[in-house]
Amino acid sequence: MTQNPLAGDWSRWRDKVDLDEYETRWQRMAADGQNPHGEVDFVMRYEPASVLDAGCGMGRVAIELARRGVDTVGVDLDVDLLERARQAAPHLAWLHANLAELDINRRFDVVVLAGNIPLFIEATERAAAIANCGRFVAVGGYMISGFQLRTQGPHLADYDQWCALAGLTLTERFATWDGDPYDSGGYAVSVHHRHRVTAD
After folding, report:
1. Which parts of the chain are beta strand (E)?
2. Which of 112, 119, 179, 178 has the alpha carbon at shortest distance from 147?
3. What is the rounded distance in angstroms from the CA atom of residue 177 to the CA atom of residue 44?
4. How far is the C-alpha of 29 from the C-alpha of 49, rounded, in Å?
5. d(CA 86, CA 158)
6. What pLDDT shows up at residue 36?
7. What are residue 160's phi and psi, to 5 degrees?
8. Are 88 and 59 in contact (CB under 8 A)?
9. Is 174 helix (H, G, I), strand (E, B) or coil?
């Protein structure tokens, strides 16, 4: 879920999290009658045939998208999380790469960044990473990202500018993955659209 495993936010998360516990958290949610796939439900509103899960972690979102018939590719820099993704779904494509440097010769109907990905990217690489992710959005496609908003950033104005570097335009913004209207609160789900071809 990160571009630099040593980045502050990511390092703190990895230091305190038990990966086995984190993985079973979603299973417990389902067992308790809660929906662990809100991000997937949201993405499916856009009827994608293909999705790039940028910062896929252990593959929860990518695996569920694939289960629903979407051609899905996951990419992450954390080798431990990627290995868990590969073990859970060896039939899917899992790429080890820095999002700022990812180079894949295809485009996707949706590029999704779920799970506070912009926060976990090293601050000096955020603009490059977000703009690079946007390069892989097909004409008529979308980049969808949800993350917490903090005083120290990243800020929505910055994020929108990074998307614009890739030729993407903000079309919708919500407060939750359930699609609640954005209320200037501490979390935002942003949808950016590619209307036309741009040069790489």
Report:
1. 50-54, 71-76, 93-96, 108-113, 137-148, 168-174, 187-194
2. 119
3. 11
4. 27
5. 33
6. 78
7. -60, -40
8. yes
9. strand
**Cα-based angle 87, 46, 97 (whole degrees, multiple of 5):** 40
Tokens of 9: 């936010």
pLDDT of residue 44 exceeding 60, the answer is yes
CA–CA separation, 110 and 185 (whole Å): 25
Residue 99 pLDDT grade (very low, low, confident, very high; cuts 50, 70, 90): very high
Q: How far is CA 119 from the centre of its chain?
A: 11
Give pLDDT tens digits for 131-174: 999 999 999 999 999 999 999 889 999 999 999 999 999 999 99
DSSP string, 119-163: HHS-GGGHHHHHHHHHTTEEEEEEEEEEEE--TTS--HHHHHHHH
In the predicted structure, residue 69 carries a pLDDT above the cut 70: yes
> Helix or strand or coil: residue 105?
coil
pLDDT value at 30 more than 90 = no
